[in-house]
Amino acid sequence: MTTILIVDDNAQNLYMLQVLLKGHGYEVFSATNGVDALRVGRQNLLDMVVSDILMPVMDGFVLCRQWKTDEHLKPIPFVFYTATYTEPADEDFAYSLGAERFIIKPQDPAVLIKQLREVLDEYRADKLTASHKEVEEPVFLKHHNDALFRKLEDKLAQLEITNLSLERDIAERKQVEEKLKKSVSLLLATLESTSDGILVVDNTGKCVSYNNRFLQMWNLSEGVLASFGDNYTLEYFTLGQLKEPESFTDKVKDLHRDAETTSLDVLELKDERTFERYSQPQRIDGQPVGRVWSFRDVTNQRRAETELQQYAVRLEQTVEERTSELRRAKEQIELILNHTHDAVALTQSNGDIQTRNPAFIAMFGTQVSQHIERVFRTVADDAVSVSVGHALMKVIYDQESQRIEAQIVSGDGHNKDIDLELIPVQLANGVERSGILVSAHDITHLKDIERFKTRFVNDVIHDLATPISALSTRLYMLKRFPENLNDHVRALENQVKHLSNLLADLRTLSQLDRAQLRLTLGLCDLNELMKYVFDTYEPVAVDKAQPITLSLDPSLPKIQLDSQQIERVLVNLISNAINYSPNGRAIYVQTETEAGNVVFSVTDEGIGISSDELPHVFERFYRTDRARQTQAGGTGLGLAIVKEIVELHGGTVSVRSEPGKGSTFKVQLPFRR
User: How many other CB atoms are found less than 10 A from the CB of residue 307?
Assistant: First the structure.
């Protein structure tokens, strides 16, 4: 293994060079001066020595001269590695002493290792050319001294620069000290001029500074603080003056534990004085070094505040007593107005609405709630709007109450039927035609019941009249032509079945209305249920020459549903598609998944539904004009039942249609409910 001796009095440089060389596989010896280096060299077999120049006891130049004059050591390559002697004259002197290389610090580690390897390779190949000549003592001393003098001159120049810098620093320091004196003087004057008592302590609680006001407030003498001045002394002389000494000490301890916290609290003294105590940390270079306590005597202020508060309480009690009845009456009126479902508003003589309840805003909207004339704009029918205007004029000029029914477009965009009442009111100022009390009662549900009852009666009459008429006709035919008994019985059975279906649908809707229809949920494969219903109705479609196609999504998951009720939905939609499609028209049935839903749809090429009729197809007893003209029977309740069942499952049903081209009914059921 190659062995290298490194010589340097700087421990850090020595360590870094050792790590570098050992990391490249060299064995390393070290010395801190020339004397130690000669001893190590004579005791060990070395392949190279790397030496600094400026060292105590024996420097590098002397070491190199003695190394190269020693018969045992002089063959070993000598390399200078210096950061101090860097001038060409220093390099020439080093080579004159026999050094093989002169390397200036710092060097890139890779470059340094490369240079050392080159020296070792030349040494092993016996290619090193010795430049060493025996230098006589006087000559060596002269060159050595010249090198030392050059370094000494450099150091003197550096020292001179340092002295000049130090003189500038001293001058600047004097200026800073003068400013500091002025600042201290200003600070002391400020401390003594403030009406607050100030105390400054260090992190241990020892008193650092204070003002005379602090001594006066706490009845302390300057001698006490001068003699002791620590936290325990201050507590001893102050705690006895406090009503609650424990809270005082607890706060101090808390702030000592958390040096960053600021604090403001109130101290009650036994002599009935009141102090505000404020504390914040004292910092130097951002670090807390102590704490500043500020004490303010707020006794007179607190007494005035107490008296003012007592007076305010008495005044408030007096006002409260005198206005309690009015407040109760107002609260009762507001309670009634805010919780009544009737829209109520009070207008001024110019028509501006002065007061209105939430129901009025909800019914007419925020814009209408500003002026009474804007109510006209919400009336759906122009003729009724004119009637409302005439009624308003009667109230204003004849001072007669008016009542009228109207349909309006409410604030939420829906049509509502209202019972509108306009009442003239005389306010306290006695001005003629003071204002109008507007009251509107929502009678939409009553009107809906009336409209539904009328349509229900008409539809039931129609749907009952048709089979009854057919029954009467068929009975007449039976009497006239008894020989066709089978045909007559089959026709009679169909009409009875139609009536039975009508009663069954009515019974189902009654259960739905009374929330008596309970779903029996179970995990169900919708594809299997769809296939079952499809197989049942496929022959019916084939009889009408209607191509019917079933497309099932194999990835359709099983979901929780009432299979009996969903089967009813499928039967209704598929049978409708067959019944209301002409012979030869195609029908498509499919299942799929869409956005977290199981979806099934039925598409036909039937008679279609107009855009005016689409919003009503799921209403009870509703049948389109085209449907009534067909020979297909129906109760007008099937789609209403479909919608109720689907919504009970948490799903939705929708329809897309175009007259003459067909319809698509689409049902979506969620994976999870």
Answer: 10
